[in-house]
Amino acid sequence: MPDSTFLDSTELVLNMGPQHPSTHGVLRIILKLDGEKVLGTECIIGYLHRGVEKIGENRTYAQFNPYVDRMDYVAAISNGLGYCLAVEKLLNVEAPPRAQCIRVILTELNRIASHLLWLGTHALDIGAITPVFYCLREREEALKIFEKYCGARLTTHAFRIGGLLYETYDGFEQEIRDFCAMFVPKVDEYEELLTNNRIWIGRLKDVGILSADECKEYGVTGPVLRAAGVKWDLRKAQPYSGYEKYDFEIPIRQNGDTYDRYIVRMEEMRQSVRIMQQAVEAIPEGPIMGKVGKVIKPPVGEAYVSIEAPKGELGYYVVSDGSTQPYRLRVRPPSFVNLQALDRMIRGGLVADVVAVVGTLDIVLGEIDR
Amino acid sequence: MRGLLNRIFLVDLFQGLWVTFRNQHPKYIYTEQYPAERPKVAERYRGAPRLNINPDNGETLCISCNLCALACPEALIVVTSERNEATKRKDLTTFTYDTSRCMFCGLCEDACPVDALELTQDFEMATYTREGQIWDRQMLEEGPKPTQYKC
Predict the structure, then answer these.
(1) CATH (residue range B49-142)
(2) For chain A, which residues lie within 8 Å of any Cβ of chain B, measuring from their own Cβ?
(3) ipTM of this predicted structure
(4) Cα torsion angle, A172, A234, A317, A153, sign
(5) In this predicted structure, what is the pLDDT of residue B19?
(6) What pLDDT is recorded for position A3?
(7) With 70 as the cut, is the pLDDT of residue A276 above it?
(8) Is residue A290 a part of any domain in this protein?
(9) Mean pLDDT over residues A82-104, rounded?
(10) Domain ranges, ordered by start, for chain B
């Protein structure tokens, strides 16, 4: 960390977290302050470490499936999709078209739920209390669909290796259509509350700027990268699970500040609705489970699959030694990589901006510590 | 000029306040008065485990095949059985299910070949002791009996 600006001034080292509510879990940031100015930061992580990757080596492939939900617990379905795709690649099977379509619908619904939680808590951190109530109200509708589909709201365990276990329930399509119709005006409502609000603009504009080159250097992905003007979305770049069939845009912005990341995420929610609307009209008939044996025993080899999770590129690297358990399982969590850029984003900023920048990165500590 | 007027008359703030005003209508109340008002959980909800019995004769449906115990990622199910010499089948003696370690993934009910073990819609499983979280066969067959509050 650099020294303070004035020789006679005293630096203040301040601990933020791990119990601070706006660190979104148990992140501890050591701030080096010169008055209100942040001279440098250091992140201490690991308070939520559960050794998930090691657990994976001691469980069969099917048994490990519920654990991945507990990494990024606000986007459990995306995690499940990534893991299932990785093992399917290892097994060299593909989920049937019907399963793929339902997977896309649920994953996009989960993206909306994740972004809604982000918007609510981010606005709460900045000081706007109202959006969190509205966001959680709409998120509740999404979680109800998950509960009806697979029996759990957060840690869903919705997908199985090779396809799906659960067939859609009666009225699933209609509920998705109703949700889409209900949700688009709600996004406009959030935008009405925040986008033009002078306090919101004042707190977010030109705060935590991360340029496109810096994003690439740090390996930052997801909305943070897209807000810096890089048109990179794995759903378009390397389509998986049938994403090439759907027509949607990648929202980008140019400045790479906190306000742009807010705009990008709002637009992403609208695009997710578009994908869901297209997918729900085109659910093919057919089986939902691919040709996977009762005991999953992939051949010797390794597979890496990355998907576009709500927070960025989520990768699963699975190494098989031919037994029923993975030899090694490695997760590339988007939050962990995005968190590295925190120091670059708030150095030289004000201490009040730390909360805004941590919020805009949309980190989940369960995924960072694993 | 327009921007200046917007700033002076706080147009952006009133725009936001109008949203909160619209949402004041009582039909937007989502709070559940929980103990008095019971939540409606979904049909497929994965809650408290239950070991089903045959309603006709009260005998357990479990065939002691131990598949649930093998499927469980946390290895929290313990099934013991003894061989019945008369029918040449395994009879269930004890069945313990440690709900304190359960993560309700549903792999045990998927594994069950006779639909004996099932995750039900009961979600009130709090106890006063840790030992109370370990359910034995009787508890699994009867299910939890939470206090019902009425207003």
Answers:
(1) 3.30.70.3270
(2) 59, 62-67, 70, 130, 134, 137, 140, 144, 147-152, 155, 157, 165-166, 169, 189, 192-194, 196-198
(3) 0.82
(4) negative
(5) 82
(6) 54
(7) yes
(8) yes
(9) 89
(10) 49-142
